[in-house]
Amino acid sequence: MTEFFPLSWQDIEWRALWVLLLILLWPLISWLRTRGQASFPWLAAQDTAEQSVYYHSRIAAFMATQTAGSTQGKQRLAWLSPLQAGLRVSLLGLVLLALAGPFYWHSQPQSVSDTPPVRDVTLVVESSVSLVLEDYAENDQPLSRIAVLQQVLDEFVAALPHHRFSLILYADEAFTLMPMTADRNTLRAKLPRLLPYLAGRTDQAMGEAMAMAIRNMHTDPNRSTTFEPLLVVVSDGLQARSRLSLADVIDYANASGIAIHTIGLGGQESLSAGRSSLIYQPLETASLQTLAADTGGRFVAVYDPAELRDAFSQLQVRARDDLVEQGEDWRQISLVHWPLSLALVVGLLLLASGWARMYLR
Prior knowledge:
This protein has 361 residues and is α/β, with parallel strands linked by helices. The protein has helices at residues 25-39, 57-76, 80-99, 145-158, 184-190, 206-219, 246-256, 269-272, 286-295, 305-319, 337-360; strands at 13-14, 102-108, 120-126, 136-138, 141-143, 164-170, 174-181, 230-235, 260-265, 299-302, 329-334. The strands form 3 sheets. Strands 7-6-3-8-9-10 form a 6-stranded mixed β-sheet, sandwiched between helices. Strands 1-2-11 form a 3-stranded antiparallel β-sheet. A two-stranded antiparallel sheet has the order 4-5. The longest helix has 24 residues, at 337-360.
């Protein structure tokens, strides 16, 4: 809403919203009272003006003076009646709002220094020559596979505080570009170095890179013992024969209890036409599907940047699983004081209007 009240109406919940229906009793009671007076005249207040009253002549003169003054006072204070009616309705509505019990959920933030890493995330990324292919487009601008991957990886890492990350590259060879660390800024600074040719031209080291990732997860003395690690392989598929067979990698992962999640890169061939001297290599999905299916992971094929962002968004949800159990404190913050405070102000205004009617008439 505003900086003074930084909540939207969607954030507010109610303990007993049905209480607000009680405000309908006001017109119902008024209607019943009117109908009852019409059906039973004896319920209506007797009009004293219709009754014959006899006074002494001097008393009658005094009463006439008082009546004239009272009539003038009523004319001066005629504006008070609608004001008081509005204040009464407002007071009733605010009291009912308070009784409905408005509240919102608030998470108690934890500082990075006090919060242990939640989960270890290892990213195994292909950097073979095929990633220079410009078969993606965003905002009508051609993008290579590696350029899209750099952007989305940066967003992925930035969205997961309190996690540890490592980055392993592979092509002809496999090596660790960034060992496991909780320093997200350093990892994000290294992402521009994620370039094709950095580890060779082909993807023969695919199996070795995954085996290296699994081994590092087990040998890391600072690994999380509370949550399972997350292993994500990003590739355009296996174009050459892996020196370490994928069957051996699957056996190693299953023996270690680690699921391999795979993301397949590969846009549209028509976008790449004429932009590279390389022979176009489409996304090969069979190897990536097998790795994910046989280890309990998930495979996603992405053919445009939006799909890649969606795939990593789903991984964010998986990486945040059980985050609340790590000590994030969610509390109900009551908002009852707001309608009660306003009701107090309205009540004081109603009292003041009553005093004005009594002393100014």
